[in-house]
Amino acid sequence: MGKLLLACAVDRCLKARRDVAAFAMIVDAKDDKAKQFYEHYGCVAFTGQPLTLYLGLGHQGGPAL
């Protein structure tokens, strides 16, 4: 279920990107287990904020989930 929710969130971000200048989706992981989930799908933690991660939306089509 988590993968589906993440895919839906990415899809919404990609659709919004058509109208606004957006290059990444930011997520706040609730704990280390959630962080590992996001990292599995390509999210990268911010330096100094290990539970805040971003996923680049790419130039065309965005990330593959």
3D structure, described in words:
- The protein is globular.
- With 65 residues, the protein is an alpha+beta fold.
- It has one domain.
- It starts with a helix and ends in a 9-residue tail after the last strand.
- The model has no long low-confidence stretch (mean pLDDT 88).
Which secondary structure elements does this structure contain, and how are they paired or packed?
Layout: H1 2-17, E1 24-28, H2 32-40, E2 44-46, E3 49-56
Antiparallel strand pairs: 1-3, 2-3
| Element pattern in H and E | HEHEE
| Beta strand % | 15-25%
Number of strands: 3
Distance between the termini: 13 Å
Q: Note the quaternary state here.
A: single chain
Give the neighbour order of strands across the main sheet: 1-3-2
Molecular shape: globular
Q: Give me the Rg, rounded.
A: 12 Å
Q: Percent helix among the residues?
A: 25-40%
What is the typical, i.e. mean, pLDDT? 88
Poorly predicted runs are: none
Biggest beta sheet summary: 3 strands, antiparallel
Number of continuous helical runs: 2
Provide the descriptors you would attach to this structure in a database record:
65 residues; three-stranded antiparallel beta sheet; 38% helix; 25% strand
